Amino acid sequence: MSTRPYQICTNCVMDTTDSKIVFDDKGVCDHCNTFYKDVLPNWHTGERGQRELEALVAEIRKDGKGRDFDCIIGMSGGIDSSYLLYLAKEKMGLRPLVFHVDAGWNSQAAVNNIERLVDKLDLDLFTDVIDWEEMKDLQLAFFKSGVPHIDTPQDHAFFATMYKFARQHNIKYILTGANLSTECIRNPLEWMYYQSDSIQLRDIHRKFGKRPLKRFPVTSILYHKIWLPYVKGIRVVRPLNYGPYIKQDAMKLLEEKFGWQPYPQKHFESRFTRFYEGFWLPARFGYDTRKVQYSSLIVTGQMTRDEALERLKTQPLDADTRRQEFEYVATKLGIPVTELQTYFDMPKKTYRDYKSQDGIYRIGARVMRLFGIELGGKR
Predict the structure, then answer these.
(1) For 122-143, what is the mean pLDDT?
(2) Which of 20, 307, 344, 376 is most buried, with most CB under 10 Å away?
């Protein structure tokens, strides 16, 4: 067991709960230094970003000419995808199809937010419902595996379903709310392993699952990073990276214009993710994703370090909510609370304990950073 003394970054709030973190002689972590050295100089949100966005929008419109819609936007009901949807329709003049994947864990607030934006923007909504029995079995397999990244089945289903839809309908552009403004500091790999690793997903399911995955959508890193963009010409683009994106301003606009409901924390539009990031990760493993989220806001000037430290003094979820969510998740998965507790108490495992494509990801990440395709990255 590591005896490394506790240390926290003097610039952000990342600390040694990230076991791979490195500090310079001023106590600044490698997350911050990577942002200032590699990301910020290559991230253009001024006139250059505006020109690039206008050129991209022109391409999307041209490709969509004669079609019912010119792109698809994955919609979760969260802040990033909601604001992107508003920008795409009202500011960019695009005709997006709103694409939502129902994995069985939508909060009522998320449902309300999606409906309000779709109705007021007069857009079409396509919802793909994941087979619940297979999703439930796969999620239970991840609990039984002992790894931290138990949200992988849900995230994997979202991406795989959207890619499949785009390919089947020959849609060349997928717009996503992923952005550097609120996500430039990324979760350490030991906290959240790559959700698209189909080798690991299948290995964990093979060891702990009980029913075959006949309808559950499965994708792979090579498929969506190489085959789709370079063979099929399907691009995943992040429009929020081309201009200023201030989280609080975006929330205020959405609330005033659409009656959008905010969430206590990023990603809490999903009941499962709320349980996972708000309780399971910090309580079982000591990984608090708010440190990553707040650190992103700190380096992009949207939050002070003192404010982040003050917020981190409280738990993501209070004791009553943690108990209620624990019972809700157990009931939803069809198991006793006592069984879920055994998964909480079992020995901890990591992604390294199962088959994976980690080597491919590492090589790919280096190549993408070398050619400027990807900024920053997990280590």
Answers:
(1) 97
(2) 376
